[in-house]
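#structure-requests
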Amino acid sequence: MNDEDFITSFEDCTLPNSAFHHRDHVRLAWLYLHQAPLLAALTRFTAGLKRFAQANGADGLYHETITWAYFFLVHQRIATAPEAGETWEEFVARNPDLMTWKPSVLAGYYREETLTSELARRVFLMPDLIPDLIPDRQPRSA
């Protein structure tokens, strides 16, 4: 499915729930971030996910911390692309860690008990592990 049809079918909730997996979430984030500034894209993304979940009888699946954390990681990875105009396929090849749901890249940023908390489901929580973004610093153990 081309990008425009993918976005349209997601937004009008005609995309089958069985055809919307983790990699599709990442693709949608990537597409939105190429169409709008960060906060506008995030607003569109979260509203769309909530609407899509409700239309598919899965209201309880939306998780704010996981959604926002992945979205911000996609944004960061787009910004650090070696060349402007990177295609989706190039993005995927460069970021295989973002395409894997389990184990999740978020395990390097959050303790499991944080991500499984009701608070993390309802509101975005800042990472509670130190990511390996700073040379010579390791994530602290739980």
